[in-house]
Every structure is written in C-alpha cells, then in structure tokens.
Amino acid sequence: MSLWLKKGKVKKRKGVDIDNNPAPLFLARSPFSCPLPVDETYRSLQRLARHRRNLIKQRARLQIQIRSLMHQAMPGCAELWEDDLLFNKSIAMVIAKQFSSAHTIAQAGPTGMAKYLCQEKIRFQERTLDKIHAWSLLAADPDPLIELLTSQWKQLLALRELMSGQINDTEREMARFLVKTPYCLLLSVTGINVVSAGELAGEQCRSSTTHRRQRSTVEQASILRVIKATNLIAAGASRKVAIDVFVPRASWLPRI
Predict the structure, then answer these.
(1) Separation in Å, CA 32 to CA 26, 103, 226
(2) pLDDT range class, residue 203, cuts 50, 70, 90
(3) Number of Cα atoms under 13 Å in the Cβ half of residue 63
(4) Which SS3 state, helix, strand or coil, does residue 89 take?
(5) pLDDT exceeding 70 applies to what percent of the chain?
(6) What angle, 0 to 180 degrees and rounded to 10, lies between the N-to-C axes of helices 40-73 and 146-178?
(7) Closest CA to 165 of 153, 176, 173, 155
(8) How many CB atoms lie within 10 A of CB 256?
(9) In sequence order, which residues have a C-beta less than 8 Å from that of residue 108 and are 6 or more positions away?
(10) What is the C-alpha radius of gyration for the chain, rounded to an integer number of angstroms?
(11) Does 88 or 206 have the greater pLDDT score?
C-alpha cells in the first residue's frame, strides 16, 4: 500500500483493506505491464484490413488519373457519368475501350455500339447509347496527342482492374479469418459487412510490437491515475468516485 501512496500527503488509515486497492488489479490486467501474445487470426485480419485500405487508396488515385487523361482524349465523355458510375455498374468504360474517340463513336452510332455490346453479352439501355452518341456529335476537339493519351489511360485502367481483383481476393481472405472469431456475429447487424467487421476485429487486437514509442507516455499517465484513485480510497472516498477517477473515459488508451 505504501508504494502507491504519496508520503506526507495522504496518511494510511486503519481499516483500509488492500483488496480495495485497484493498483494490483490494474497492473495484472494492463496491456502495458505484461503484453500478451495476439492470436494469428486477429493479426492476419489486421494486416489484411490495412492492405485492403491501401489498395483502395491506390485505386482511387488511379481513377483520378484515368479521368484526367480521358478528358484530354475524349473531352466531356467522363462527365456523362458520376464518379462511381464511370467505373462501376455502367457501360462507360466498355464503350470507351472499344470506341476510344468521339469520331469513332459518331461513326458507329447507337446501332454499332448496341451490336458490340450484344456480342460481349452486356446488358444496356438504348437511352444510354443515345446519350453517348449525342455527346460524340457535340464533343470538342481532342488533344493532338490523342493516341498517346488513349494508350496511357488504357494501361492505367488495366492496372485498376488488377487492383480491383486484388481487393476482392483480400475481402474473401478476410471473410475466411472472420468466421474464426466471435466478431462474425456482427454480420447479423444491419449495415455491417465482412469488411467493417473484419477491420474492427483486426484493429481491436493489442499487438505487443505496436506503439512501443507511445507506451512510456501512456503508461505514466495510467500509473498516475492509479495513484490518484488509490489515494482517494485510502482517504475514505467512495469506490464510485475512485473508479471515475481511475477510468474517466477510454480516450487515453492507445488505438492500435
């Protein structure tokens, strides 16, 4: 008890049981004093979630570059669709890869584009083809380096498709590890999918090798809270007040 009391400030009182001291319990359960090894399942989820997040950021950068290059080669074509619909759930990129300029689209017309989509077994609406054809008739002149710019955005598009496949594979791998943890029960909640549940499970694990630089500062702050709570108990304060001082909120804990 004397180790956790400030000498000369709080006197040791009679009848104070050492079991009421939260310091030993805190040190026994503290992740800073004796870090426990983390299961490989949670570590794998953490690495997969962060890898997927990195791929998402890289793919977003590619999409911005593709839009910029397409605007120079096919002015105004990318603006016919919103950000998500340009690359997903539309025939925009399918048409752009086959008919890579406003002149070729104007020559093919809605009939030529419909014929190509039927050969590729892709569903479409005629009003969408009419919108693309109307743009090709009113499009501005492209950049003189249209051939070079077209090859560049097609290469970036192939790289984006490769990243999309890697993201799907990573999500399937996350699902394989998620079912081994109790966090799979979160899937029964509306709005939570495999990705969000897997990220939560992976980031909640406390790795013994993470945030080593932050441990000394956080550990000092936590020990000061233990000392303050112990002094309050020794001075006769209620356990509720001591607990409020001991754990006022969880924001002082590091996020791993």
Answers:
(1) 10, 67, 14
(2) confident
(3) 18
(4) coil
(5) 64
(6) 160
(7) 173
(8) 15
(9) 99, 116
(10) 30
(11) 88
| Residue 164 amino acid letter | S
- Nearest Cα to 131, choosing from 152, 110, 100? 110
Per-residue tokens: 14:
């009679």
Rounded to whole angstroms, the Cα distance separating 51 from 145 reads 36
| 148-to-69, 145, 170 alpha-carbon distances in Å | 10, 5, 33
DSSP 3-state assignment of 9? coil
Least confident of 195-199, 203-207, 220-224, 249-253: 249-253
| pLDDT given for residue 111 in this prediction | 92
The pLDDT of 47-71, averaged and rounded, is 93
Tokens of 217: 């500062």
Rounded Cα–Cα distance for residues 76 and 57 (Å): 25
Output the six-digit token pair for 174: 């996350």
DSSP-derived secondary structure letter, 254: P
More confident residue, 197 or 220: 197
pLDDT for 83 equals 66
The CA distance from 237 to 10, in Å, is 12
Token output for 223: 């020990």
Alpha helices in 10-125 (DSSP H): 22-29, 40-73, 83-87, 92-98, 102-119
pLDDT tops 70 at residue 66? yes
Which one, of 122, 56, 72, lies nearest residue 93 by Cα?
122
